[in-house]
Amino acid sequence: MRRASLLLTLAALSAVAHVVGVLVAAPLWRGAEVLSLALLLGYAVAAGLPAPRWVVPVALVPLIVDAVRTMPAEPGAGDAAWLVYGGPGSGFDVTAGFDAALAGSWATLVAVAVLLLAFRGRGRRRHLIAAAVAAAPVVGYAAVRVADIGAAAAAVTPGLEIRTETTLTRVDGPGHDQVDVVPALVLAVLPPLALALAALALAALLAGRGRRLAATGAALLAVLALPLLDAALAAVPHPLDADGTALFAWSAITPTAAMPQPVAALTAAVELAAYLLLVAGLARSHRAAVPAPAAAG
User: Pairing relation of β-strands 167-170 and 161-163?
Assistant: First the structure.
């Protein structure tokens, strides 16, 4: 058991190293996130895999794959550049926000889906009610953001330049009307909302099985959906004055020279903390798994 505790400690330290690297926009080590997740898998095996024994390794595989895919580039490997769209013949990309959201959440969605499949059953009524109450502000926030951006985009003056975080689009002719923009916004929020609702459902099921630590980790994944939602909406071209309701955008915490990516670092911290709590709560280091409740109550 001492080996398992050491692996968990090293996984947490690697997670901290990754978060610090994100915060200062200068990775302490490019592979810190990958190492953290790999050590977490090693911890789960050493501490004791829950039944079914395949569930934790299968859930962690997409997370490790995504961490490898998004590993920071070597210093000086390339420079970021602005992409400029617009002009004659250019169209409005309805799926831009959805693609951005899916790219940022697919691995977590797969992991949560695997855990839901393994721990499916009837949850306790009070846990399900708590999950529904927690889901309400997430859904409400998405609705407010979509309505705000949709209304602002519908009022865009022809010829106005619309900025997102990475694009500059000039709107010629009649401009984007609400019929064009709203479907793109709705598509953009679908993956984050799916993640939040699935994570809260998982938290309710795990709490019903007595795995409160793992349930806390699942609930944190619902919090992760909020910055993912704002990042997805930022990929849809819209007027800057529509960002007044964005509470979790990249600029929600003012960047400084010493800490240029505070929101990104906070997002990474929540994500890795959720994984650590989930796996630690599922591993059978101190007790056997608790059977699922026979009925709601």
Answer: antiparallel
User: 3-class SS at 247?
Assistant: coil
Which pTM does this prediction carry?
0.83
Is the confidence at residue 130, as pLDDT, over 50? yes
Identify whether the C-beta of residue 162 lies closer than 8 Å to the C-beta of residue 171: yes
Q: How far apart are CA 265 and CA 289, in angstroms?
A: 34
Which position has the token pair 């010829």?
159
pLDDT value, residue 83: 37
φ, ψ of residue 86 to 5 degrees: the values are 120, -175
How many other CB atoms sit within 10 Å of the CB of residue 148? 19
Q: With cut-offs at 50, 70 and 90, classify the pLDDT of residue 91.
A: low
Other Cβ atoms less than 10 A from the Cβ of 173: the count is 7
How does DSSP assign 120-185, residue by residue? -SPPPHHHHHHHHHHHHHHHHHHHHHHHHHHHHHHTPPTT-EEE-SSEEEE--TT---HHHHHHHH
- Name the strands in the sheet holding 167-170, side by side, starting at the edge strand that comes first in the sequence: 83-86, 167-170, 161-163
What are the structure tokens assigned to 145, written together?
A: 């953001």
Answer yes or no: are the C-beta atoms of 260 and 130 closer than 8 Å.
no
List strand residue ranges (DSSP E) for the chain, in order: 83-86, 161-163, 167-170
State pLDDT tens for residues 30-78: 999 999 999 999 999 999 888 889 999 999 999 999 999 999 877 655 4
Provide the 3-class DSSP secondary structure of residue 83.
Answer: strand
Vertex 42: Cα angle to 41 and 44 (nearest 5): 65
CB-CB contact of 171 with 194 (8 Å): no
* Cβ contact 159:73 at 8 Å: no
Peptide bond between residue 192 and the one before it cis (omega within 30 degrees of 0): no
What CA dihedral angle connects 65, 68, 71 and 76, to 10 degrees? Answer: -140
